[in-house]
Amino acid sequence: MPPPPNDGRVSPDRTMNEVKSLASDRQQRQEATFVRWVNAAFKRAGQADKLENLSSDLTSGINLIKLMKVLCPDVAVPNYNKNPKMRFALMENLNRALEMVEEGGIKTVGIGADNIADHNMMLILGLIWSIIYHVRIGKIQIGEGKDGKSGREGLLFWCQRQTANYESEGVKVKNFTSSWSDGLALAALIENNRPDLLSFQGMKALGKPQAVVAECIRVAEESLEVPRLLEVDDILIADDEKVMMAYVSEFYTLFAKQSQAQDAVRRAQRFVQLEMKVADLVEQYEKGVPDFTMWADGVFKEFGTLEVADPSLEDAWAKTQRAEAFRANEAKDKTKQCHHLIHLYDEIQLNCRTHNRKKYETPEGILTGPELKHLSSELTQKAWDFIRAVREYYDREKTKAAAQYVSLVEELNTWMKSIEGAVMREASTAGDQASMEKSHAQLAELQEEVHKQDLFKRTQEAAEHLQQGGVPTHTVGGTHHRWDEMCWRMETLQQNISQKKTCMEEELEQAKAQAAGVPQEKVEEYREIFHVFDEKKENCLSLSQFGDCLKGVGIQVSDVELEPLYRRYAVEGVGIPFDNFITFMWENTQDVESKEQVMQSFRSLAKDKDFITEEDLSSVDPAVSLFCIKHFPRGPHGFDYSTFVASKFL
């Protein structure tokens, strides 16, 4: 009989068979995964025990007891039969093993010793999964409070957070099945924690999920010591979240421990770093406070009260300068230092409060921040009180010194006006020789009076007193009180008197010469000679200068004759003045100064030449030689002495 036609429907028997087949495959993958998981637990504990089949290897209860001993070391191991042969011995071991499971905090609802002894694989797998979940997954806690996640949700959230940076690459972890089937989520998880082991882009470039998964499992096993709980197909099929959770939880355990270790390092570092920071702040504070308080003690001593032993403008000015320097520089710098110290103290206390540390207590002798604020405020008030008192003291001394100066300047001004008037009167005096001599004597007296004037010196001291006290004289009274103006007037007065006196002396000399019959041109000639030897311009000749002069003009006098001759014309204590020099020259040169004699003398010096050279003049006095060179007409071969000598005689 031919088979019925195919109407496109699947028969119920075929569907049931396929479901049973899928369930069987899933159960086989779970068993294989759980066996590997148990064996990995034994291996981590250093035990040689190893399961091959959950159904048969747990029947005696011995392996289950050993597994609980490894997983829950705090649970006491009961006495059990190490070589059970009969069913009742097996049942007793299994019951004791299940008691250990219960004592370890793992619920065993729905399974008994008989289920394990009878090889009920579904219940056995459920028991092992409960153990895996409790040991690896149930203890996971991500976050705290109502926003915290634990268990399966905690593990899923951890995976999502670990792969968040790879969402743009197509990695989106939403479950423990399909989200892992292409292997990229596993690659992202490994690279995020150990980028030195695996390249996500390199895995993505492989293009085949099977190759990606295989490489990730290999790297995890060889480099991270993550047990190979799954095969490549287990991940590719992605139909059982339990086996995937068991595998992924191994990564969580590994990386979470690393993270916890890193967190412990960071926490320890943060603690030590905070202690270092606080210690540094405390060191700065405790080093700076004594320096500031020592300075403050010095300021209190210096600026406590204004003590003036000997009041004066200079003392007041010095104290004012010190106070101003303190205010502008020292106080400003120390105020900054104080504020910095207070800030350090506040920062120390803030760090202690913020990080739940004990409040900082200053050692004995070290002020606290509030105490520093009080000291700074008290110090500022004391300094301002002192500055105010110093300024008042300075203003008093300044007023006193200024009044004294103005009084002296007024007196000096009156005196100078009287002297200036007297000089004008004497300078305008004209008449006979007696009148000029009287005016000359009066000018000499005025000059002496000006030279010895004590009022000018006292006024100068008062001006210097003001200036040393920081008070320029132009700020006192009117413009005629300026000390530089007074000095200029005094200098002008002295020059005026000297000039008038010199002019009067010349007029007297001329009058005396005329009275003695000395021609005016002779007076001028004698004056020129006199000035050559009056090197210091003192208007008189000393003994040595007089001797040089005689040699220069050709008057031969022995050393024995020189001094008596000098005393004859000299004024005692002064020397030979010009008017006496005129008398001497007129009396002693009339018989030796004929034109012919002088001509003959120069011709002799010139070795009978009509001109004389500098070499010819080397035998005479240097001053005479210089005069000849300067005044004799210069010719093609030398100096024309004949013309010069002829021009001087009548």
UniProtKB/TrEMBL annotation:
This protein's record includes keyword rRNA-binding: no
Ranges where the Calponin-homology (CH) domain occurs: 28-136, 149-256
Highest taxon, organism lineage: Eukaryota
Gene Ontology MF terms in the entry: actin binding; calcium ion binding
Annotated EF-hand domain residues: 521-556
Similarity comment: family membership: Belongs to the alpha-actinin family.
Name this protein carries in UniProt: Uncharacterized protein
